[in-house]
Amino acid sequence: MTKKRVLTGYRPTGKLHLGHWFGNLQNMLQLQHDYDAFYFIADWHALTSDWADTSGVRTFSEEMVLDWCAAGLDPERCTIYRQSDVPEVAELTMYFTMVTPMPWLERVPSYKEQREQVTDKDLGNVGFFLYPLLQAADITIVLADFVPVGEDQLPHLELTREVVRRFNNTYGEYLREPQAIIAKEGARVPGTDGRKMSKSYGNAIFISDPPDEIRAKVSAMLTDPARKLKTDPGDPDICPLHQIHKLIAPADEIAEWDSCCRAAECGCVAHKKKLAEDLVAYLAEFQERRAELAARPGFAWEVLDAGAAKVRPVTDEVVANCRRLLSLDSGV
After folding, report:
1. Are residues 89 and 161 both part of a single domain?
2. Distance of alpha carbon 275 from alpha carbon 190, whole angstroms
3. 307 and 229 in a common domain
4. Same domain membership, residue 125 and residue 266
5. What pLDDT score does 320 carry?
6. What is the model's pTM?
7. Helix (H, G, I), strand (E, B), or coil: what is residue 82?
8. Tens-digit pLDDT profile for residues 230-267
9. Are 174 and 206 within 8 A, CB to CB?
10. Which of 254, 192, 186, 241 is nearest to 220 (CA)?
11. Which among 171, 149, 146, 164 has a CA at the least distance from the CA of 93?
């Protein structure tokens, strides 16, 4: 039986950190076995918010491929490609602008939130306003059956479904309405300051950080703010250090740290040292594999070129059929 197709992507706006590792990346590793998986580098999406400084887009795209493949994504098993290598996405986005009322875009929750909360970037550009349609085109250009999303992303997918329905009702039933796969809830990974780990907060531990940098970041981590002295009992449930450690260490070891922290029988400094060494060891195999791939000249671009070659027959056919439906074909 032919596998159903699933699609997801990342914006190349920075290095991947532990939040990515324990979140969507683990889902992607499993999906490549269960579905015909399409994974794309969303470099055009990066431009919608970072249009004033595009200097990092190419480098971050390359690093993302290295991270993905070193983590276990297999280009022979899934299709990895770059959004800008598929110009048909832009053409389909244009067609979607013709059938999408402006209020549909204005009501997208994240559009309002980011316009209000992001103060260090100019998000008044048309590209940012239209990014939900670009996202819809990303999904439908490959006729994806499923898109993994969190609960908070369901409005985005529903907008795609509405746009597809209106396109089909106007021009003829053709494009596929994608269904949601409610992504398995990834672990909430706190940053070194206790907030959600994010590169924009400057609190991230990146999966490609060298060992000494990992040790330095862990050493500077905040712990239970109420624990001023080693003799003060702590609460591991609110300690970022503990929350990260339990993601990588055996349960019995975590139980020991939990118990001794609550009883004030061990200190945060000792726990930080242990977490740092465990984290270095945990990432060692990945980082070794990543270094091997990075040492192969042009590896990332070979993967992206091969992925583009695999996806183009699909996108060419979709656009050709859309042109026919819109009476834009040659008629031959």
Report:
1. yes
2. 14
3. no
4. no
5. 96
6. 0.88
7. strand
8. 888 888 888 899 899 999 999 999 999 989 889 888 88
9. no
10. 192
11. 164
Helix (H, G, I), strand (E, B) or coil at 39: strand
Q: Which residue has the higher pLDDT, 61 or 47?
A: 61
Query: DSSP E strands: which ranges in the chain?
Result: 5-10, 36-41, 79-82, 146-149, 179-182
Q: Which residues of 40-72 are buried (b: 16+ CB within 10 A; e: fewer)?
A: bbbbbbbbbbbeeeeeebeebbbbbbbbbbbbe
The number of CA neighbours under 13 Å toward the Cβ of 134 is 20
The one-letter amino acid at 309: A
Sheet order of strands, 179-182 included: 79-82, 36-41, 5-10, 146-149, 179-182
pLDDT-based confidence at residue 120 (cuts at 50, 70, 90) = low
Q: Are residues 103 and 246 in the same domain?
A: no
- At residue 180, the 3 state secondary structure works out as strand
Based on the domain organization, do 262 and 309 belong to the same domain? no
- The tally of domains found in the chain comes to 2
Residue position matching structure tokens 């269960």: 34
Nearby residues of 105 by Cβ (< 8 Å), 6 or more positions away: 111, 129, 130, 132, 133, 159
Q: Which two tokens stand for residue 73?
A: 């994504």
Residue with tokens 């579905």: 35
158 and 145 belong to one structural domain: yes
- Domain match, 151 and 260 both: no
Q: Contact, 281 vs 252, CB < 8 A?
A: no
CA-angle at 213, arms to 212 and 218, nearest 5° = 100
Q: 34 to each of 98, 147, 295, how far by Cα in Å?
A: 35, 13, 31
DSSP labels, 162-178 = HHHHHHHHHH-S-SPPP
Domain holding 74, by residue range, is 5-188+296-325
pLDDT of 194 higher than 80: yes
Residue 203 structure tokens: 């609190």
* Residue 115: both structure tokens together: 């316009």
Query: What is the rounded distance in angstroms from the CA atom of residue 116 to the CA atom of residue 17?
Result: 25
Q: Is residue 91 part of a domain?
A: yes
87 and 11 share a domain?
A: yes
Length reported for the chain: 332
Residue 198 in domain: no
